Amino acid sequence: MATKSLLITYAGYPLGPNSFLPDNGLANLASALISAGHTTKILDFNTPKIIKRLYPSHLSQSITPIVERFMNGETLSFKEISRLWLTEKRLSHYQNREASLIGREIARMVEKEKVDFVGFKLWNGDGFTGSLRIAHELKKVHPELPIFAGGPHVDIFREHIYTATRDFNALAYGEGEETIVMLAEYIGWKRKLQEIPNLIFKKDGRIVTTPVKRIKDLDALPYPIYDDEIYPAMRGNEKIKMIVLDESRGCNNSCYFCIHPLKSGRLRVKSAQRVVNEMVAIKEKYGIGVFRYAGSNTPLKLMEEIAREILERGLRVEYTTFGHVRGVSLEIFKLLKSSGCFGIFLGIESGSQRILDRGINKGVKVEQIKKAILYAKEAGLFTVGSMIFPAPGETEETRQETLNLLSEVKPDSAPILFPLIVPGTEWFKNPERFGFQFNKNTFLQKTMNYKVKFMFPPRFWKPFPYKVNGERFKKYAQELEQFMKKVEELGITTTVSDEMALLAKYVHLSPRQYRDQNRLNFLTGNFKGIETQIKEINKNVLSNSV
């Protein structure tokens, strides 16, 4: 029996332009279903229209002057801060209501199009709670409709999601291309849930988890689908025309903080020929020649092979990538640059060897980090070096070591993140070893439902439910802000990713200018400003005029 399905992604109010990149994961799932003879449609709500829907114009107008003063570094009055809090509260109430309305709209679509099942991609924050609201409305109208969920939040919280909802018939963790086809067969009475890998579901009141299964031959996967009739948000300028390209999965490293080895297993790669074939197909079919590699740690050898394949074919593309500092050379980075590589994201984490070894298990030396950044910059790559601060074991001495490293090598950008404790990682399993303190009975519930207060600096967010190095959230949030200020004083931006820097190029702005414009637009709900930027990016991407 051929089935008809809807694949839904709703991330709540978008926090930046990355929200508007096409969803390669759902494009892969759609392709798997269609290749197996099923029919599906992707409902991607992460478009500029969602800003217009979730941020009423009267609230936008009232808050804009205050946000502009805040971004200019001016001290806000108690009255102005109160206005921000009130606006945040009103927005939250308004967005909850809209999520329920979206659920009713989808329910009507399910009935009209005779949909057999629905799949959700679950995000964090409002993307999680909003998706639960949408699913609940669907179940109210269609109680017999099978609804499944997967995505980042399922990979992290797994069966604990059932403490927040009863509306999902099953949760899918890990890789989904084979699993979703088997779920379609389950709908057609050809399989039982317990026969399908990578699933979590309830049976007779207990949780059942089926064994994990990884896709061994990534080259055998069908190409992702971005056709308008299957992925309607790809029409016009609803999505930014940059494709996230699935070139590898998994990771062989064992960083103590990272979920990727647990989520995706050991490293597996597509062949360079397959990756470039995919680039060619996407460029010929959709006119898009700008990419970002999806892998969490693209192997240097694969990068090199892809670069050579691009050059041999004379293919004109531009792309960015994650990378590792081990084994790099100036020659390889120059090769990447000549093939169209614009920038590279390197996980530095710290400039202290002690923290890299004991707190993070990075498996690199500070000297390797220095060489990698300097080589990348000399080759002309936009160089991003991400940091974790304050890291486990952070002291004034290690802080200064990191500032010294950044001052010496000057990456183009150094995004700085809190130490995030993710279930399943070494930090989570052995918190005392790393100086973390949290209540194991309440931690999962609090982190699963955590929402960032996007209008405010971190110290005003709802406290993370754990201590770092014996300090409560407000204290280490202030330390983070002070550290970011120090890095910015070195002339290094702290919140620009490699793909954001590439997008800035396509609107003729510096990465810092693009960051600041977007920050103001998203904080104030400036739908028109965001829409204008996306139109400009897409015009230049599709015309290859930049």
Structural class: alpha/beta
Mind describing the biggest β-sheet? 7 strands, mixed
Instruction: List segments where confidence is low: pLDDT < 50 over at least 5 consecutive residues.
Output: none
What name goes with the CATH superfamily of the largest domain?
A: Aldolase class I
Give the fraction of residues assigned to helices: 40-55%
- Beta-strand percent range: 5-15%
CATH T-level topology of the largest domain: TIM Barrel
Question: How does this structure look, described?
Answer:
- With 546 residues, the protein is of the alpha/beta class.
- It has two domains: 4-209, 3-Layer(aba) Sandwich (Rossmann fold), CATH 3.40.50.2300; 240-505, Aldolase class I (TIM Barrel, Alpha-Beta Barrel), CATH 3.20.20.
- The chain has 20 helices and 17 strands.
- The chain has helices spanning 24-35, 48-54, 57-71, 78-113, 126-141, 152-157, 177-187, 260-264, 272-286, 300-313, 330-339, 353-360, 366-378, 396-409, 426-429, 443-448, 473-489, 498-505, 511-524, 527-543; strands at 4-9, 39-44, 117-121, 147-150, 170-172, 199-203, 206-209, 243-245, 248-249, 268-269, 290-293, 318-323, 341-349, 382-388, 416-417, 436-437, 467-468.
- The strands form four sheets. A seven-stranded mixed sheet has the order 2-1-3-4-5-6-7, with helices on both faces. Strands 8-11-12-13-14-15 form a six-stranded parallel sheet, with helices on both faces. The chain has a two-stranded antiparallel sheet with strand order 9-10.
- Helix 3 crosses helix 19, helix 9 (272-286) crosses helix 10 (300-313) and helix 10 (300-313) crosses helix 11 (330-339).
- The longest helix is centred in the N-terminal third of the chain and has 36 residues, at 78-113.
- It is globular, with a radius of gyration of 23 Å.
- The N and C termini lie far apart (48 Å).
- The mean pLDDT is 94.
